[in-house]
Write a structure and sequence with these properties.
Radius of gyration: 22 Å
Strand content: 5-15%
Distance between the termini: 29 Å
Number of helices: 13
Strand order of the largest sheet: 5-6-7-8
Order of helices and strands: HHHHHHHHEEHHHHHEEEEEEEE
């Protein structure tokens, strides 16, 4: 698990020259709307309890869909840290070789694979507010689209952003036409230029049509952490070799035979993203009522316990960690999988487990000695 590594992004000034855009607004709206068609009534009710408007899933408006929210906020200073979470640069060389490895390509957890693992863990966490759970859902609604766009799992020429191409007579770049132009061409050519028609067609294909026999496999992974998103990244990366980086990308106008070849894969990837998102949310929201145990680890003893709350000001055997914000040192402990630290938050006089993303409005605990921790209000 990379929960705290992802969370620390919020406290660090980050920049990257790699691809930071995904499917355009149309693609992300389609993914969210497909997901809505597979959400159970129980999931919709749980989302409502978090403060998520379920109409943001079902809308066909590309400006108000929950699927586009993460793109809308990443340019804001408060969310600038999230830009690197929209992709993961595979260390391969399409079309000659394609492979993705989370440990190799996202060692610090700051990528779309790590982000899906992190925000999944937050949706049902007892240590975050409903508003923070709603934010986690918003990020997931976007990242499930990102991870199915092949050039978001690609390091070559900054995910195709630096590959100049011609499309329909105009100069563009490879990443851009996969994000936007080809999706819009597909919607115009095959779906009456209608998001609703596009979604309806893909949902039918998943339920009873050409995807019916394979859709279950798209969402068959149920492992926690980054195991499943890594599998999905591997799946998308394969298309970089077989479809995306065809030999003529830098010469021919790609609105011709290249687009014709790519079109069914665009449909497939949008369908995958939407179906996976709906199934994934059903699974994690269904687990919200349970009380998971966490693994607490010291230098000599590892044991599994249910998270506890300890009165503010009492001693707590946690090591000092780097700060979430400001200059103080903050306490941390190993939880969940016993490998990565999670910080401790002081909330209404008790210590609770948390990660740092979105928690700026809460006071944090800090240590004044090797054992004693106080509440920083």
């Amino acid at each position: 698990m990379k929960q705290v590594q992802i969370a620390v992004l919020a406290m660090t000034a980050l920049s990257s020259t790699s691809c930071v855009y995904a499917w355009g607004a149309v693609g992300h709206t389609i993914v969210a709307n497909i997901a809505y068609n597979f959400l159970t009534s129980e999931s919709l009710s749980k989302l409502t309890s978090f403060g998520v408007s379920t109409s943001t899933f079902s809308t066909t408006s590309t400006s108000s869909s929950i699927g586009v929210w993460a793109d809308q906020v990443k340019s804001q200073s408060a969310y600038s840290w999230s830009k690197v979470l929209h992709y993961s640069d595979a260390g391969d060389n399409p079309p000659t070789s394609c492979s993705y490895s989370y440990s190799r390509d996202c060692a610090d957890g700051k990528c779309v694979v790590g982000a899906i693992g992190n925000y999944t863990s937050r949706v049902c966490s007892s240590s975050v507010s409903n508003a923070q759970k709603a934010e986690a859902v918003k990020f997931l609604a976007h990242f499930f689209g990102d991870i199915t766009q092949p050039l978001h799992i690609c390091g070559k020429l900054t995910g195709g952003n630096d590959q100049s191409v011609k499309y329909d007579g105009s100069t563009s770049n490879l990443h851009s036409i996969w994000d936007t132009q080809m999706v819009e061409s597909r919607m115009s050519d095959a779906y009456s230029n209608s998001v609703s028609t596009y979604v309806s067609s893909l949902v039918t294909a998943i339920k009873t049509g050409k995807y019916a026999s394979v859709a279950a496999g798209w969402a068959s992974c149920t492992s926690s952490g980054t195991t499943c998103p890594e599998q999905w990244a591997v799946d998308s990366d394969k298309l970089d070799c077989s479809v995306v980086w065809a030999s003529n990308v830098g010469s021919a106008d790609l609105s011709g035979s290249y687009y014709t070849t790519a079109a069914p894969y665009i449909d497939q990837q949008l369908a995958k993203g939407g179906y996976r998102l709906g199934v994934w949310l059903n699974r994690i929201l269904n687990s919200c009522s349970s009380s998971p145990t966490t693994t607490t680890k010291t230098s000599t003893v590892t044991k599994t316990t249910t998270p506890t709350q300890t009165p503010a000001g009492s001693t707590f055997p946690f090591e000092l960690g780097s700060s979430c914000s400001g200059s103080k040192r903050y306490c941390k402990t190993s939880v969940d999988d016993g490998t990565d630290p999670a910080y401790i938050k002081c909330n209404n006089g008790v210590w609770t487990l948390h990660s740092c993303v979105g928690d700026f409005g809460f006071p944090f605990c800090y240590q004044t000695s090797s054992t004693n921790i106080l509440c920083d209000n």
